[in-house]
């Protein structure tokens, strides 16, 4: 794990103005071009950044982690609120500007790493306890990154994350609706979740074509349902929603040759569709899989 403690020169560009300019002006001054391949849309509305930090409920003594800080729009208000802040950024070209904007006011550690492959369990051990994550997630990796974070939930107390609005609707959806799917079920199993507020496209640079939503997660003290095997549970959920228009008897055939017997053993009508099942029903189905 490599820690970057000091800002470096950015190709001879002048960073002295980074604390004086607004973010849009700074972006223009440095000639920075957000990378579409990394899903970069910089949050430039400082009022929204402050609102996200306030809504996170973090306390001064908390171990806070920010993913994808970009140019530090969230990092700066976070650094004023907590004593220990760790930020994870993949784009090395942003690190000098980020470090300059953070300054030396608090203990901030910057890790250059891919959050999708990052070991948050190890980070929790390094920091000496559970963590709280606050982030404006890149649109193009938000769903797989959320699943990755769920896999590391043992060291995560809470998460306050910004998503594309339609992804947030899927995360928080209830059974029976068109937005209810694999992501909804997996989140509900391990997290209490709440949609906090929407963020307009004008809060970002470049301006996206979609709205965003901030969502708060808190790890459940106990999972919603008991599971014999988390991998089987995830496979059942993904397979069932993989062909969501089909009945469960047909959608689950890749997992079982006699789906009707399997479903009957779990006391689930084989003519139902995935979007009608509660989390506990998916869990019951997964727990019955090995016995059939």
Overall shape: elongated
Which range does the strand content fall in? 15-25%
Q: How many domains comprise the coordinates?
A: 2
Structural class by SSE content? alpha/beta
Question: In the CATH scheme, what's the topology name of the largest domain?
Answer: Rossmann fold
How many distinct helices? 12
CATH architecture designation of the largest domain: 3-Layer(aba) Sandwich
Helix content: 25-40%
Instruction: Output the CATH homologous superfamily of the largest domain.
Output: Vaccinia Virus protein VP39
**Could you give the order of the helices and strands?**
EHEHEHEHEHEHEHHEEEHHHH
CATH class of the largest domain: Alpha Beta
Write a short abstract of this structure:
With 292 residues, the chain is an alpha/beta fold. It has helices at 23-30, 46-56, 75-81, 95-102, 120-127, 142-151, 165-171, 182-190, 230-242, 248-251, 259-265, 279-288, and strands spanning 3-4, 42-43, 63-67, 84-89, 107-112, 131-136, 156-164, 191-199, 204-205, 212-219.
Structure description:
This protein has twelve helices and ten strands. By secondary structure, the chain is an alpha/beta fold. The chain has two domains: 3-219, Rossmann fold (3-Layer(aba) Sandwich), CATH 3.40.50; 230-291, rRNA adenine dimethylase, C-terminal domain (Helicase, Ruva Protein, domain 3). The strands form two sheets. Strands 1-5-4-3-6-7-10-8 form an eight-stranded mixed β-sheet, sandwiched between helices. The protein has a two-stranded antiparallel sheet with strand order 2-9. Helix 9 packs across helix 12 (279-288). The longest helix is centred in the last third of the chain and has 13 residues, at 230-242. The termini are far apart.
């Amino acid at each position: 794990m490599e820690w970057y403690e000091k800002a470096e020169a950015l190709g001879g560009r002048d960073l002295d103005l980074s604390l004086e300019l607004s973010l849009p002006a700074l972006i223009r001054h440095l000639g920075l071009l957000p990378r579409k391949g990394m899903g970069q849309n910089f949050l430039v509305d400082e009022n929204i950044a402050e609102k996200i930090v306030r809504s996170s409920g973090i306390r001064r003594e908390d171990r806070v982690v920010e993913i994808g800080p970009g140019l530090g729009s969230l990092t700066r208000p976070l650094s004023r609120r907590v004593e220990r802040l760790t930020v994870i950024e993949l784009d090395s070209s942003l690190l000098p500007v980020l470090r300059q904007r953070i300054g030396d006011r608090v203990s901030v550690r910057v890790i250059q790493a891919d959050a999708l492959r990052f070991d948050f369990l190890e980070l929790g051990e390094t920091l000496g306890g559970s963590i709280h994550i606050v982030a404006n997630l890149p649109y193009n990796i938000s769903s797989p990154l959320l699943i990755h974070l769920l896999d590391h939930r043992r060291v995560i107390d809470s998460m306050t994350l910004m998503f594309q609005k339609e992804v947030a609707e899927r995360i928080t959806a209830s059974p029976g609706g068109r937005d209810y799917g694999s992501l909804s079920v997996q989140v509900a199993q391990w997290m209490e979740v709440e949609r906090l507020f929407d963020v307009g496209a004008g809060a970002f640079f470049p301006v996206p074509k979609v709205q965003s939503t901030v969502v708060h997660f808190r790890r459940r003290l106990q999972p919603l349902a008991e599971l014999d095997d988390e991998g089987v549970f995830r496979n059942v959920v993904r397979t069932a929603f993989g062909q969501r228009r089909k009945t469960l008897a047909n959608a689950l055939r890749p997992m079982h040759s006699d789906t009707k017997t399997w479903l009957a053993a779990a006391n689930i009508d084989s003519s139902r569709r995935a979007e009608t099942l509660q989390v506990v029903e998916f869990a019951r189905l997964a727990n019955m899989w090995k016995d059939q």
